[in-house]
Amino acid sequence: MFSRAFRVTASVRSLAAGASLLAIGLAATPVSAEAAAPAPVADEPTQAADNTQGIPDIVVTATRRAESSKDVPVAVTAIGGEKLDVLNSGGQDVRFLSSRTPSLQIESSFGRTFPRFYIRGLGNTDFDPNAAQPVSVVYDDVALESPMLKSFPVFDLANVQVLRGPQGTLFGRNTPAGVIKLESTKPGGDALSGYASGSWGTYNTVNAEGAVGGPLGSGFSFRAAGLLQRRDNWVTNTSTTGVADKKLEGYRDVAARFLLGYSSGDFNALVNFHVRDLEGTPRIFRAGLFKQGSNDFSPGFDKSKVALDGYTSQSMSQWGTNLHLDYHVDGVGTFYSITAFEKANVESTGDIDGGNNYVFPALGLNNALFPSNTGGVTRPEEFSQELRFATENMGGVTAQGGLYYFHQKLRYHEYNYVFPASGSRAADNNQDIFHNNTNENYGIFASVEYKATDALTLRAGGRYSHDRRYDRISGYSPNVFPPTLPLDQLKPLRASEGEFTWDLSATYAVSPDVNLYARVATGYQGPAIQDRVTFGSVPTVAKKQTTISGEGGIKGALLNNAVRFALDAYWSRTDDLQLTAVGGGTNSAKLLNADHAVGYGVEAEFEARPVPQLTLTVSGSYNFTEIRDPIIRVGQCGSACTMLDPVSGGLATIDGNDLPQAPRWVANVTARYGVPVGNGEVYVYTDWAYRSSINYFLYEAVEFRGRALLEGGLKIAYKTDSGFEVGAFARNITNQIRSISAIDFNNLTGMINEPRIIGGEVKISF
Fold it and tell me: How many angstroms separate the CA atoms of 654 and 633, rounded?
């Protein structure tokens, strides 16, 4: 995979060549032998120095400039430092962020390789590799399109920023719900520095990471970071038939990142290279998890036991690189270039029915109507190039604008395994459907900020984006129902659409410490293709969806920075909402455009330091969502569930239903208390996250309504002034087990959250 050269279109070559010439020209700037370590690369967030009297200011890059969070007319939350370390101490993937900020949910039916994000209720439950999501993940200023690339591990980060609401102007298409922005710690500093940490916990869960960086001289600096996360297979497969592994749910996830920075006067460059290798088991589907007529677990449920008879495996290798360049012209502004390439190879095979006993009706643990064992190999490749210019302040006016290009190649094979299995995957595989997809996007954007008075700041921006998608299906499958056979005669699918998105906002300083803001913005998700052809499905295309949102709020600090707060209220409407209807009876899938969906809610965040030793945070949100389309109907569940929607002709009317995976209430609380001891302190840190009940699918059924979930964490540690720390922690301390998603196939199958993990941790910083 690593040796395969990638090809790009002529327009991509032109942009890449232009960026390279720019780099060569700028690199020719004379370098002083005594050049200092590189200045922070553009867009890197900074934070004011901590103090014992108040809470330090939070600086974010939601507007592609470093600004105080209270000055940004966007609902944004930043998590970094100790809080990020504590939340991530249990060895979980990016899903640990779910419910940790207002209006944010993350779930997966693929485990660690395919997270699905939802902000303010807007997301996409589709599990196909070509699924488009309305929440963009931007890792080190590179937008990742493939849901599998979005799963790159979280380690050695300066912070995570969650931007809520449409971000179409500065971050492009597929951001109508918001953006998850992850920022790696960058090279810098005058001396060698770094850290190493390691924890061990329940099920031999290991979470070890470290980083080292500093100056190299002559304007160069570096930072190298690595991560190891592993867990034993802690679930026992009790099945005495079939070919499934006897132990499941373990993983070994290794990732590394190397950053090389260079600075000379007004020129900065940063090269980022990162890799990942994952081996483990796929997400466990638990047949008959739900008791018919309720959303309680079936009698006999045990989180540490399942009964599967199909093949189970998962692996992922990923690598990527990006080049950041910026050149400042004094009195004019700064030119930026970001060139990036990402590639992955993912194999995942699962027992989709989740059981080993086939009966009618398929009720109770481990029971299904018929066996289904599928898998696939997915290979996404993505190239992107952004050129941007940001002006200096010119009489109260600042502006930025640029060009963006993105090209994705997505190839994947779908396999199916027959039963009874012989034990040979090659012999049991009776299907190979090959998908060859391309996705191309380009955009042009501009944004202007005007300080009308000392108190009033106005902003406006716009972006034109255009998407082109191509999808070709070939291969063979005896499970494909007419009229889709033969596959080689299927016509390629194409979709091509564009959209202009914009935003307008105003910020008014009530005082030096408190701001009011109002914002109206639009977002755009490009056209989508659903190319599933098994179980009677036929390829479908959904046209673009567009979102308009208005919000207003207040942000600031009180009592000499002892209290920081942010409050906002919003309303949004998404037209031509893209929905994936999955029919449980046949496992078919179809893309639909609902007329529209509405959402509105309130969000709040408070942080207080009443005394120097105690820090408290409270955040929460109320999100109302509703599908509004009086004529749209989808297939009802095929698993003996108890339908709540009106059903006619086997189809359910979903007008008025909540969006899937959209809880009405989300809340989060943390508390930290430290006591000086010797040359350090002993501290206690606890965190709690709550989300109310959720609906798994477009239709509503009693069994597929997820119960409320409350997860808590606790850490007790001793930290010295010299950088040594030792402690104990617990994640999901109450061991509350809930279903977090489900499969509507041929039984009442579901998936559960992470179990309780208790362990110890050591960290050394220098």
Answer: 6
User: Which pTM does this prediction carry?
Assistant: 0.91
Q: Which residues fall within 8 angstroms of residue 448, CB to CB, at 6 or more apart?
A: 397, 398, 399, 459, 460, 461
Give residues with Cβ within 8 angstroms of 425, minimum separation 6.
311, 417
**Cβ count near 196 (within 10 Å):** 15
List CB contacts of 323: < 8 A, sequence separation 6 or more: 19, 23, 269, 270, 271, 272, 337, 338, 339, 340
Neighbours of 395 (CB within 10 A): 7
- List residues bridging with 695 in a β-sheet: 705
Rounded to 10 degrees, what is the CA torsion of 346, 350, 352, 354?
Answer: -150
pLDDT digits (tens, 9 = 90+) for 530-550: 888 776 677 889 999 999 999
CA distance 253 to 249: 13
Tokens 């179809």 found at: 590
CB atoms within 10 A of CB 747: 33
3-state helix, strand, coil in the chain (%, to 5): 5, 55, 35
Average pLDDT for consecutive 10-residue bins of the chain (766 residues)?
37 37 33 34 42 77 92 96 92 93 94 94 90 94 96 96 96 95 94 96 97 96 98 97 95 98 97 98 93 95 96 97 98 97 97 93 92 94 98 95 98 92 92 93 97 97 97 78 53 93 98 97 93 78 96 96 96 95 69 95 97 96 97 86 91 95 98 96 98 95 96 98 97 96 88 96 97
pLDDT digits (tens, 9 = 90+) for 656-708: 999 999 999 999 999 999 999 999 999 999 999 999 999 999 999 999 999 99
Q: Which helix (H) or strand (E) holds 284?
A: none
- At the topology level of CATH, where does 10-765 sit? Maltoporin; Chain A (2.40.170)
Residue 13 backbone zone (phi > 0: left; psi -120 to 50: alpha; other: beta): alpha
Exposure of 35 by Cβ count < 10 A (0-12 exposed, 13-18 middle, 19+ buried)?
middle
pLDDT of residue 10: 37
User: Which among 222, 318, 223 has a CA at the least distance from the CA of 275?
Assistant: 318
* 3 state SS for 66-108: CEEHHHCCCEEEEEEHHHHHHHCCCCCCHHHHCCCCCCEEEEC
The string of pLDDT tens digits covering residues 174-184 is 999 999 999 99
Element (H, E) at 166: none
Residue carrying structure tokens 């989508």: 528
What type of residue is 610?
A: P
